[in-house]
Amino acid sequence: MPWHLSSSAQSLLRGLFKRNPVTRLGSGPGGAQDLRQHCFFAAIDWDKLYNRQMEPPFLPLPPSAVSDHAHYFDAEFTQKTPRGEC
């Protein structure tokens, strides 16, 4: 698990990445409610989110306003030369 992730993010990923679907987070009897109740999402007011009463933290520009399709990708990746390996 990447060291820079918070413990709640690591816990969420561990729950989602379980191989056995029976024990995977969100696939049990509680379904999506189990995901919503995970500590990673503790700061989210799900009712406000559902009713679109929350301000999004990021609004992307419409496609017509950006000059290239890689606009939101970090330059670390867009400046690399692709390798054609088969």
Helices, strands, pairings?
Elements: H1 7-16, H2 32-36, H3 46-50, H4 75-78
Describe the structure in your own words.
The protein has one domain (7-78): Transferase(Phosphotransferase) domain 1 (Transferase(Phosphotransferase), domain 1, Orthogonal Bundle). 28% of the residues lie in helices and 0% in strands. It contains 4 helices and no strands. The two termini are 28 Å apart. The model has no long low-confidence stretch (mean pLDDT 88).
Secondary-structure element string: HHHH
Instruction: Kindly report the average pLDDT value.
Output: 88
CATH superfamily: Transferase(Phosphotransferase) domain 1
**Uncertain parts:** none
Summed up:
By secondary structure, this protein is mostly helical. It contains 4 helices and no strands.
Features:
86 residues, 28% helix, 0% strand, 4 helices, extended, Transferase(Phosphotransferase), domain 1, mainly alpha
